Amino acid sequence: MAVEDSGSSGTAAHSPLPRLLADTAQLVSLGGDAPAGALWKLAEPGRQLDANVVRLPAGGRVDQHTEPDLDVLLLVLDGEARLDSADGGHPLRAGVLTWLPHGSTRAVLAGPDGVTYLTVHRRRPGMRIQPPEAADRLRRPLGGDGA
C-alpha cells in the first residue's frame, strides 16, 4: 500500500528526493483480514535496500533457514511471534527490533493472533545474462583433475 507523495522523483539537478512509501499503521489495521505473505515490498528503481512488510497468520511460520550473505533487520509491527535460533526461542512483540546477522540460523513462528513485521536488508545483485563462454570458465575439463 503506497502513500501518495509529490510525484517528483528529483530536482532540476536530478538529485533523488526522500519518498513516503507506505503507511504501516494502515497495513497493520487490516489485522486478521490481511492476506498471509508480503503486504508491501520496496520496489523503487535504483535502490540499495530491499524491504518487505510480511503477515503470518496465527500459527504460521517461516521455516528454519540460514542466510549466508545478508544481515537482516526485523521489526515487529503488530502481534507476537517466537524467533527460534541456535541459542533457543526469543519472544517477539510489537516494537521489538531484531538483528539477524548473516550466517545465523533462524525460524519465525507466529503467535495466536498472527504477526506482521518489517524486514530490511541490503539488496541482492540481480542475475545478469552472460555470454555463453562465461559458463565455460566454470566447468571442469572432462577427464581432467579439476585443479
Describe the structure.
It is a single chain. The chain is mainly beta. The protein is 7% helix and 41% strand. The chain is built from two helices and seven strands. Strands 1, 2, 3, 4, 5, 6 and 7 form a seven-stranded antiparallel sheet that branches. The longest helix is centred in the N-terminal third of the chain and has 6 residues, at 24-29. The radius of gyration is 20 Å and the shape is globular. The termini are far apart.
Key traits:
7-stranded antiparallel sheet, 2 helices, 7 strands, 41% strand
What secondary-structure arrangement, pairings included, does this model have?
Elements lengths: L23 H6 L7 E5 L7 E8 L4 E6 L5 E14 L2 E6 L3 E4 L4 E18 L9 H5 L11
Number of helices: 2
Number of strands: 7
Structural class: mainly beta
What fraction strand?
35-45%
Helix content: under 10%
Order of helix and strand elements from N to C terminus = HEEEEEEEH
Give the overall form: globular
Query: Residue ranges: pLDDT <50 for 5 or more in a row?
Result: 137-147
The description of the largest β-sheet is: 7 strands, antiparallel
Q: What Rg do the Cα atoms give?
A: 20 Å
State the end-to-end CA separation.
Answer: 52 Å
Mean pLDDT: 83
